[in-house]
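seq as requested:
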Amino acid sequence: MSTLTILIVVVFCIGYLCIALESLTKVNKAAIALLMCVLCWTLLMLDPISYYPNFIGSDVLHHISDVIEHHLGDAAGTLFFLMGAMTIVEIVDSNGGFNFVRDTLKTRSKRKLMWRMAFMTFFLSAILDNLTTSIVMIMVLRKLVQSRNDRLIYAALVVISANSGGAFSPIGDVTTIMLWIKGVITTQGVLTEIFIPSLVSMLVPAFILQYQLDGKFDKEQNLPKADVSMFTKSQRDIIFWLGVGGLCFVPIFKTITHLPPFMGILLVLGLLWTVTEIFHYSASDDDTMAKRVSDLLSRIDLSTIMFFLGILMAVAVLQEVGVLTLLGGVLDSTFEGNHFLVTGIIGVLSSIVDNVPLVAGCMGMYPVAATGDMAIDGIFWQLLAYCAGVGGSMLIIGSAAGVVVMGLEKITFGWYMKRITWVAFTGYIAGILVYWLERMLFF
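struct tokens:
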């Protein structure tokens, strides 16, 4: 490994550390990711001939431009998909589409609320994504649970359920979206083989945590009030089913048309946008402008989009200089091709650092094979989808869902680690064992 390659790796590791320590440095991780990306590509340009010896003179510069555009194209597909999905969910939420979630959860029994919330979060995160579902569920819980101590338990289970639900769906988590768009997992494959392990990884922690909740809520709480909305119930239902149904239709659209997934998302967004404009047509412009899609677009978390862009493009540099291939060979030789152990370790690491760069790195480290464990829907890729998603539940900073819940409910790192980490780890291991049994018995 050359000195320049080592320097690129050092810059990447320092940037990675700063991202992991965002709560201490107080510097937004998107800014660090963008700096890391540009610095790594700049270092590569100091001696491009050593990485592309087949090109001479100005040809190597043209080749690097083509390489960057290629990686940017791959990243853009993921980013446009995320932006479209986030906008669709914002449209549904701002127009009262998620009121039914609150009404469905309503009960005076603390344990009944926990189980309803766990299953609702699990299945919603498979459709919406774990980050958005976590935000929706925490907002609902604030209206239903007044006790902070109780709400912390519910919030922790929201993180676990959201990450577990996102792992078995191609659109439920950023990492599964990346793997799906890359073509290493299919919709049918993850739904049939990862669903039960993901469900178990939610059920086991829920069963344990239910013993920390007992009794009933006071009569005066847990009674949600109806929100004032300019739309009728039928219009809100139409918006909900167009948004959520459209998200479910995206994998079908990809299968039928063979177009990239972000094209399906843009189709759903365009349709939903048109329908809401028609609904707003009869109302006063002053009253409805704040909830029109053109205004809702400003609420999209662009810092998250910039973070993913920086991370994906920085990982692309490591792929270009051969670091990921070398690392993949080291892991394989160390663990002798035991994919359960390799992906299990990756899952544990995803609770310490962000799972997006981990999965991006793995996609660069391991080539897709025609047959065997590394083939499309093979053991390695399916386990990677499960472990990177569910493993992030073990620490509060290990997933996007955990980070946002940490901010909303002011959960401390120490409280979560002491009370929840071992619970999440138990569910994580149980899911891996279930997947192993599935492969032994049925596949």
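The radius of gyration is 22 Å.
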